[in-house]
Amino acid sequence: MDSVAKSKTDYRTQVSQVSFKPGKAVDFTALGKAVDSAGFSAQEIEVTAAGRVIENQGALALQVAGTNQVFPLTGEKAQALAGAKGKDSMVRVTAKVDLSHTSPAFEVREVKGGAR
Question: Which pTM does this prediction carry?
Fold first, then answer.
């Protein structure tokens, strides 16, 4: 994948950590398929991303800094970001990538910066 800067796998815990190149779009569906084709299972993808909170199709979303990618924000903690919507302040979210939507969504687990 062109967007991957580096990856590291701990085979004991069966956890991989992947860092992406700044400004490169990330295709999480392709990432999951690449993991599967390598003989592993991407049971869960957790991401930490920085960007601005916007409204997209009537819902809160994160526009990832340095890219045009926009991901819907879901989960109870996502509503804490409503106060940051439309402001120039950057937020950093840690989220589970939910691939069950037409386009992947971020189920927010932790928020840094902006409104909480």
Answer: 0.81
